[in-house]
């Protein structure tokens, strides 16, 4: 057995995406009694049935539920301007509860469901995803050339950016990208090597990571604001369904008072989002994040919306984060340079670009407070909601004629 296979997958409770902490704090303060359910799904076909991983996944979850935050980790979080002291006090007492998460085998399918208080189960997601990923890749045949290939591909990426020289390093408008690769990484050790290498070789362009542990250990900027689950949860909080986006954005504004000002746009599609993103929100938020649909179409709609509200788009930022690689990110940078500030979150293409195909795994909120929640994104196939009645109602309320899912 390899050294990697002997090591536990989860090294620290701080090794989570930043937006988990920011959403966690906001929901703890606003809806501490909410109940939720999250479900794991693999969207592509693995090389062997994931059901075979159940014993190893169970062992990792058992261990995860024994961990607590270390004092230096809590001190780091307390030092982030937007993290409040009472939330850190909560984390100092927090421990995952094993009774809130279960694994099941359904034929060759591995099912993982987290069900319980929202502020207890929401943080399972990222850990479950990278536990499954790393255990999966540990089971594949060991190939001494795998990391050689992965390092060569990383070198090609770095050389690609360096080869563009001054074009990407202008002091007033450099090309800026971040690591968003925690959830689907090949391994923790490889992910760390990638981030350290990028930070050392591309200091002008590489500006941070969503991995809070890496940010702490490497002195990088932790990156993240909100994800779909935050807005989806508001579908169950007693507001008119038509008003849930406005309620969620208002909740965010009240929690962060100007910090973390990038809003996610695709829970019910860009058009429906812009219908709620009025002058008030457009002035309060620094920018928008793209996570589904055609990025150019999305960006042009965003710029037109800002102009309609008599806001100079050059004062705002668009963050692209949907399945990007560096060439596509540079292409978008060139298209929008001088028109709007941009930055790019790149995940699997950085942390899992090996000869083996990456798993397309997700673990999404599917119910809250006893009712279904869902998103109608601008890309097909991105929903885990099985309640067709609720989906039809959601489409009707927001005027979705395309059957977006």
How would you describe this protein?
The longest helix has 18 residues, at 146-163. The chain has a 7-stranded parallel sheet. A 5-stranded antiparallel sheet has the order 2-3-1-11-12. It has 2 domains: 3-140 and 360-373, nicotinate phosphoribosyltransferase, CATH 3.20.140; 146-225 and 261-351, nicotinate phosphoribosyltransferase (Alpha-Beta Barrel). α16 (326-336) links the parallel β9 and β10 (341-346). The protein has 18 helices and 12 strands. The chain has 405 residues and is an alpha/beta fold. The chain has helices at residues 3-6, 18-30, 54-64, 71-78, 85-93, 118-121, 124-139, 146-163, 188-201, 212-218, 228-233, 244-256, 270-276, 279-284, 295-308, 326-336, 348-351, 388-397; strands spanning 35-42, 101-106, 109-117, 177-179, 206-209, 221-222, 262-264, 287-290, 317-320, 341-346, 361-368, 371-372.
Strand and helix map with partners:
Layout: H1 3-6, H2 18-30, E1 35-42, H3 54-64, H4 71-78, H5 85-93, E2 101-106, E3 109-117, H6 118-121, H7 124-139, H8 146-163, E4 177-179, H9 188-201, E5 206-209, H10 212-218, E6 221-222, H11 228-233, H12 244-256, E7 262-264, H13 270-276, H14 279-284, E8 287-290, H15 295-308, E9 317-320, H16 326-336, E10 341-346, H17 348-351, E11 361-368, E12 371-372, H18 388-397
Parallel strand pairs: 4-5, 4-10, 5-6, 7-8, 8-9, 9-10
Antiparallel strand pairs: 1-3, 1-11, 2-3, 11-12
């Amino acid at each position: 057995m390899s050294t990697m296979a002997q090591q536990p997958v989860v090294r620290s409770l701080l090794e989570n995406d930043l937006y988990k902490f920011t959403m966690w704090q906001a929901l703890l303060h606003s809806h501490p009694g909410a109940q939720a359910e999250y479900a794991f799904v693999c969207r592509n076909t693995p090389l062997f049935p994931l059901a075979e991983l159940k014993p190893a996944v169970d062992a990792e979850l058992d261990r995860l539920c024994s961990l607590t935050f270390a004092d230096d980790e809590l001190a780091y979080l307390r030092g982030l301007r937007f993290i409040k002291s009472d939330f850190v006090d909560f984390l100092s007492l927090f421990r995952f509860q094993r009774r809130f998460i279960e694994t099941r085998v359904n034929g060759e399918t591995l099912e993982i469901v987290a069900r319980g208080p929202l502020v207890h189960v929401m943080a399972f997601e990222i850990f479950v995803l990278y536990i499954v990923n790393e255990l999966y890749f540990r089971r594949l045949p060991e190939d001494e050339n795998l990391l050689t290939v992965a390092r060569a591909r990383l070198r090609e990426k770095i050389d690609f950016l360096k080869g563009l020289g001054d074009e990407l390093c202008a002091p007033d408008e450099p090309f800026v990208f971040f690591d968003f690769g925690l959830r689907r990484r090949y391994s923790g050790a490889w992910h760390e090597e990638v981030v350290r290498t990028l930070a050392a070789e591309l200091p002008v362009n590489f500006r941070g990571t969503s991995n809070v542990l890496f940010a702490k250990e490497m002195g990088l900027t932790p990156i993240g604001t909100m994800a779909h689950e935050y807005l989806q949860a508001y579908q169950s909080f007693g507001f008119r369904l038509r008003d849930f986006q406005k309620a969620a954005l208002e909740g965010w504004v009240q929690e962060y008072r100007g910090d973390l000002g990038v809003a996610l746009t695709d829970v019910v599609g860009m058009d429906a989002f812009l219908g709620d993103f009025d002058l008030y929100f457009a002035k309060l938020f620094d920018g928008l994040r793209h996570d589904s649909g055609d990025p150019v179409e999305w960006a042009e709609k965003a710029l037109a919306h800002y102009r309609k509200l008599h806001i100079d788009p050059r004062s705002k930022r668009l963050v692209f984060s949907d399945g990007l690689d560096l060439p596509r990110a540079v292409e978008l940078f060139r298209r929008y340079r001088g028109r709007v500030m941009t930055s790019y979150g790149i995940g699997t293409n950085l942390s899992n670009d090996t000869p083996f195909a990456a798993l397309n795994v997700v673990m999404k909120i599917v119910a809250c407070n006893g009712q279904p929640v869902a998103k109608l994104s601008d890309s097909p196939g991105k929903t885990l909601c099985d309640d067709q009645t609720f989906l039809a109602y959601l489409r009707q309320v927001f005027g979705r004629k395309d059957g977006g899912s």
